[in-house]
Amino acid sequence: MSKIVVLGGGESGVGAALLAKHEGFDVFLSDQGQLKPEYQQSLLDAQIPFEQGAHSMDKILEAQEIIISPGIPEKSPIVKEIKQKNISLVSEIEFASRYTQAKIIAITGSNGKTTTTLLTYHLLKEAGLKVGLAGNIGHSFAKQVMEKQHEYYVLEISSFQLDRCFHFAPDVAVLLNITPDHLDRYEYQFENYIQSKFRIFQNAKTNTTCIFWSGDPVLQSHASSLPHQAQIKTISFDDSNANMLIQNDQLKGSSQFQLNLADAPLKGPHNAINMSAAILAAEAVGISAESIHLALKTFENAPHRLEPCGTWKGVQFINDSKATNVDAVFYALNSFKQPIILIIGGVDKGNEYEVLDDLVKEKVKGIICLGIDNQKLESHFGPIGTSIFSTDNLQAAVQKSIEWGQSGDIVLLSPACASFDLFKNYEDRGNQFKAMVKMLNDGK
User: Fold this and answer.
1) How many helices (H) and strands (E) does the chain have?
2) Cα–Cα distances in Å, from 291 out to 70, 257, 261, 282, 300?
3) Does 81 lie in the same domain as 104?
4) Which of 90, 112, 146 is the last residue of a domain?
5) Fewest CB within 10 angstroms: 91, 100, 164, 341, which?
6) Which of 74, 90, 106 is the last residue of a domain?
7) What residues are designated binding site?
């Protein structure tokens, strides 16, 4: 019996272990941290041996194949040791895709992939299809494959997951955009990250639908890497030959699909691209324009993505905590016409802030740097002339925004950085921000 080791005991790792056991493999799971009680119970129920708090390399290196958590970097000692032994090292996505005949829509991009994934899933679900939501969101893809309840899957795929995909071949592949992100995981080489994202197309065939925004500068400069053999569907702001054209506050499809953006559930030009991608993906699996229009009316985006979270004395607070890179902040600033007080900062991931300069000059009346080390932000934005306040305390940040804010202003939490210096994760950061805004309204 072949042995499979799973590294990482989170949602994806435990799901992969369960599927591997179901498929007849000898399975062992190892996690350097502590497993949640419910995950421990799932493994115990399935009689899968596991360890936590350490990695036993002698057991791990006995494997014929290792399924690795996307959170474990390529440069970690354990990965280097596995590579030296030439043991197959794959992601949960790669492993689980071997055991399903369901049609798969896979969505990646530096920004917007969660919104696009959720909307695509919503369009399919509302059309009555048996569809699962997985990947970088929702429940484990592998566990759902084991349960065989779905005929379609919509998967949000990160670059880390793609790095360990080799034969994964989605029926519909969506690449929204590529902007610098996670460069700390890619030796601070943008090209390495670009090549990771392009892996979404690496196994595209003539009947694969590949969807992308043709205006993305990186996709334009890497045109030779695009899957020209596939069924290509493009989104554009100015190309009348595009399959989805965003123009004059309207979204027009080559399939005669048309939507007034004023009536759309998502606002901002970046969300027009996200909606276009979701609509094209839904059309690719046979969803009608009528069904799409009906489903759009009932869609609600996930929290922490340009999420309105209250108004105080005419000042509107927006929680965009999911904006963990510079390009996401660029999109956020472009979504508002009102004066903005920007709360930015956290763990810098090799960010370059120059792309924000013109928008900051045009729209931002004050910048609040929120992090343990704000020196890079202060030195970059200081010379621009916008008011700057620096703190490592969220309450102080909100208080300063109240002092600066006037009726009609926007206070925008859009950090451009990871959250781990002051918060558990971006959700914790967003939830604490929302709680403080609620306290303002409660008069506390």
Assistant:
1) 17, 20
2) 35, 11, 17, 10, 17
3) no
4) 90
5) 100
6) 90
7) 109-115
- What are the binding residues for ATP? 109-115
Place of tokens 């921000």: 433
Judge contact between 261 and 103, C-beta under 8 A. Answer: no
Query: Using an 8 Å Cβ cutoff, are 323 and 332 in contact?
Result: yes
- Sign of the dihedral through C-alpha 120, 124, 126, 131: negative
**Mean pLDDT within 86-109:** 97
Same domain, 270 and 350: no
Q: Which helix (H) or strand (E) holds 365?
A: strand 364-370
β-sheet bridge partners, residue 52: 31
Q: Are residues 241 and 104 in the same domain?
A: yes
Q: Could you list the residue range(s) of the whole structural domain that residue 32 is in?
A: 3-90
Q: Are 65 and 32 in the same domain?
A: yes
| Gyration radius of the chain's alpha carbons | 22
Between CA 194 and CA 215 the distance in angstroms is 16
Q: How many domains does the chain have?
A: 3
Digit-coded pLDDT (tens) for 407-429: 999 999 999 999 999 999 999 99
56, 63 contact by CB (below 8 A): no
What is the value of pTM for the model shown? Answer: 0.80
What's the rounded Cα separation, in Å, for the pair 185 and 178? Answer: 15
Specify if 171 maps to a domain: yes
Give the model's confidence band at 327: pLDDT under 50 very low, under 70 low, under 90 confident, else very high.
confident
**Biggest CA pair distance of the chain:** 68
CA distance 361 to 326: 16
User: Do 406 and 315 belong to one domain?
Assistant: yes
- Tokens 């399959």 correspond to 243
Q: At what angle do helices 394-404 and 426-441 cross, to 10 degrees?
A: 50
Number of other residues whose CB lies within 10 A of the CB of residue 288? 13
Per the domain annotation, does 431 fall within a domain?
yes
The number of angstroms, rounded, from the C-alpha of 174 to the middle of its chain's C-alpha atoms is 13
137 and 58 together in one domain: no
CATH number of domain containing 225: 3.40.1190.10
Residue 207 and residue 108 share a domain: yes
